[in-house]
Amino acid sequence: MEIKPFENRIYLSSPTMHGKELEYVTHAYNTNWMSTVGENVNEAEKLICEKVGCKYAVALSSGTSALHLATKLASVKDGDGVFCSDMTFSASVNPVVYERGIPIFIDAEYETWNMDAEALEKAVELYPNVKVLIMANLYGTPAKMDEITAVCKKHGITIIEDAAESLGATYKGRQTGTFGSFNAISFNGNKIITGSSGGMLLTDDFEAANKARKWSTQSRESAPWYQHEEVGYNYRMSNVIAGVVRGQFYYLEEHIKQKKEIYMRYKEGLKDLPIQMNPYDEETMQPNFWLSCMIIDKDAMCKQVRGDKQAKFFKEKGKSCPTEILQAIENINAEGRPIWKPMHMQPIFQNNPFITREGNGRTKTNVCGEDKISCVCEDIFERGLCLPSDNKMTKEQQNVIIEIIKRCF
Ligand SMILES: *Cc1c(COP(=O)(O)O)cnc(C)c1O
Predict the structure, then answer these.
(1) pLDDT at 369
(2) 92 CA → ligand 1 middle, Å
(3) Among the four residues 94, 137, 381, 396, which has the most C-beta atoms within 10 Å?
(4) What ranges make up the beta strands (E) of 9-157?
(5) Which atom of ligand 1 is nearest to the CA of 65?
(6) Residue 363: predicted pLDDT
(7) β-sheet bridge partners, residue 183
(8) Overall pTM > 0.85
(9) Does ligand 1 lie within 6 Å of residue 134's CB atom?
(10) How far apart are CA 293 and CA 276, in angstroms?
């Protein structure tokens, strides 16, 4: 059977509007509350606090700005090391660099693809003075929070949780975005719900929330004139954006349900192939299933060569690789993506420390299987990929994508 490309492109994860968003945006417009103050901002903060179970939410222009202010709240200063997830999007770690801190990347584990508490323990041995950690919940799957929290407690390390991808996910019944002293969520266009852009800083610390609010609005002191004692930022969320967020909020659970169905359909449809879906612990975790991903078994990988900007593969019967599958998906006008390339492999972070369970991951003594693959992150990047996970994708369209993947093996 010949498969024709989709007429309308199927995206990895794109915004899905419902109508309610426009009502709140229109209200802002009609009442001229078109700045960074207004009912939508206040209500969006309140709704998120109630949902997530935090005391304070500060609505900001992006998840990145939330992470930046979190980094400042955690007192990261010039030359300070900060333990960071290695397998994450660069926005998790750039704010450390804004503050002239030094990201120290921690390898992932295979059970959730998130920061490995054992590797973290190793990093603490090597860098006992580091007092801040930023951990992400990749693709909407919570990290092993008990294990990570235990290490941090033992060594007095402040946790910043990057829950940009995991809004609505829970670990042991508790929402992600509450495990850190300071937490960030994102309303970027590709996230589980969106404001078109935007983010929030979440915390239970009253003074921290006030500081973040002040810093985000240019650090104005209460004085008759513009009086400044600290550096300020223009990071506050617009009341228009907040209207979109406020409208989307009511569809968070619906989006999670759709994303879970997508994940389960892939899991079922691909079950006879030598692959696994992005894993989670069913006992303790309820992911938000933001992105469905797969990883090819080691012995079912055909040869694939990745340079800095291009990739090649060598076809083998019964085997495949991310490069081949991504190309096949692209050929039918659907969007997949490689696994987020680990931070320690990024040219801008080539001189930053990278720690695995064995210690220094830069020495490549701890080869885990293939040539040149020296850690869990590199292995998942080599063998894994993100599948089209848009919640507007129909069952029929997804079946076509599943069929296309099967044909790669
Ligand atoms: C999207 C994302 C961010 C950044 O959020 P923005 O709102 O786009 O600034 C940070 N960390 C992770 C892991 C993300 O996926």
Answers:
(1) 47
(2) 7
(3) 137
(4) 56-60, 81-85, 102-106, 132-136
(5) 9
(6) 75
(7) 161, 202
(8) yes
(9) no
(10) 9
